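[job 0412] stage=fold_complex status=start
inputs:
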Amino acid sequence: MSALLENKRNQIIAFVALGIFLLILPFLAGMIGQAWVRILNITLLYVMLALGLNVVVGVAGLLDLGYVAFYAVGAYTWALLASNHFDLSYPFWVLLPLGAFLAALAGLMLGAPVLKLRGDYLAIVTLGFGEIIRILMNNLDKVSLPGSDTVYNLTNGPRGVTGIDGLNFFGFKVRQGIEVFGFQITGLQLYYFVFLAIAILSVWMVYNLQHSRLGRAWQALREDEIAAKAMGINVRNVKLAAFAFGALTGGLAGGLFAAMQGFVSPESFGLLESVMILAMVVLGGMGHIPGVILGAVLLAAMPEVIRYVADENVQQKVFGLVVIAPEVLRNLIFSLAMILIMLYRPRGLWPSPDRKSDAGGSAK
Amino acid sequence: MSIDVLLQQIVNGLVVGSVYALVALGYTMVYGILQLINFAHGEIVMIGALAALFVTNALIAVGVPPALALVIAILAAMIICAIVGVSVERIAYRPLRTAPRLAPLITAIGVSIFLQQIAILVFGRNYFTFPEIIPKTPMQFGAVIVTPNEIVIFVTSLLLMAGLLFLVNKTKIGTAMRATAEDQKVAGLMGIDINKIIAFTFAIGSGLGAIAGVMVASNYGQAHYFMGFMLGLKAFTAAVMGGIGNLWGAMVGGLILGLVENVGLMFVRGDYKDIFAFVVLVLVLIFRPQGLIGEKVAERA
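[job 0412] stage=fold_complex status=done
writing structure:
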């Protein structure tokens, strides 16, 4: 495969083929059902999230178990400022940058106090941070200031925020879809193209960042913090930059999530979600962009595909009876796949060719 | 916010904290030897609770006296958990001992999900009521109310912790465990069978976890397949707060976490109880990055 890709012409052919495939994919999925287009869109969001976390964990070597908190900040920024919860309706060019900015700010706030921590201590603090954000979302529906009886409802608690505006380009509502020459493109399919564009943009950004001065500093930090310091790298700023950039990507994805779903609730932002995104990065191949994308696509799409295959009807046909509840079977296969992939490919499915150690390698 | 309430919350905190401490010991022992966050430990605790619950009910149904049934059930749960723990180590962690450090963490997460699903298959999704065998009739000590059940939990935990400290510090196998934690390679050269010691560590940690599971189930009167998640998270937090890899740290961390949570309830609404635990953790780690009792590890270049 790699020998085949050495050839410049083959490379171009492969890229063009991939491009065409990505362009017709939502229509192929649409033929089976719009639910599959939604799965594609969610997968693209996971690609963005995995790319963002990859900068923190894979490139800079900082183990973050609360990454979903930034996703939540982005999603709630959009949800609260563009829904009937507060009767606000800001346009996307305010909401997306603001969500990303607030998430990056949260990243800095988390990063600053934990700079001294390393390895697994950092993991547990970030995990705690993620839980704090989730619990706040759950409970900020009945806030009262001391000495006053007025109760404010900030987040609507576990019921979540509904009726969120979609993506509107100056009057044009993406959610409603569009008809081009009698050919119907649904709203979800339009979202797919928006997400695809932003995902490609994130790949481009992460790639350039990784090969910039800052990116090399991150890698130096990952390989050996003390040596990096001795080489004149400002460890504090470089670490904060990693946190902020990762958070920014998460916040952006969060805003897009809220826009597409039209509904957010704290349930979507639990610890398991953070763990899943981390699993995507590690399973795919830390610090290696194609690997991380592969990991995200695999882990986001696999449960849905298994759900389809392990369906009760299929079991009925094969065994003549429903052996295991489909939901349980799905999770069983999913967890076994995670274990087996790691056992047989401990460095990930598509590891970086020049990677020496991994997160916290020098902290041992 | 009287002193009576404070005393009551301290007592409650000590009971909950002693259970946290038992679970935290399982995390910290494994971490001490393998530098691995054993994410599946919470699930082992859950399996212990459910297994003990089902065995107790089955034995009582055939006419065994409840107290005897509980003892047999706890022993059975310990054996089951030890077997599960050792198998998990053998299958999912041992092949990855020389792999990049995050690889076993991911398999641990996989194992955790896997064990939950197995628990659903074996026991079901319901919330099960744990039979009240040790009475929960409230007893009044001054202003403080305690149940016999709580006293048994607290005393048993203390005895188990003392036993573990004795095992690790005073026996031959304990010496081997400490040597393995210090340096696996050198310990191996000294004639210690590393694999056996690591398996033994998992067996002990899982056995303690099983007892902790029974304690939680009897304290709250119920058990279900998802109970291991939050408990494991809290216990791991306690282990880190105390200084991970350090037995005393896990015990102190567990007790402090229990106290902080329950005393904190006097000041914040119950919904924020979990936040309190994490905020305290963050504060502790900012001022003592190595944990409360953890030794300061020199940075190695």
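[job 0412] summary: Chain A is about 65% helix and 5% strand.
[job 0412] exit 0
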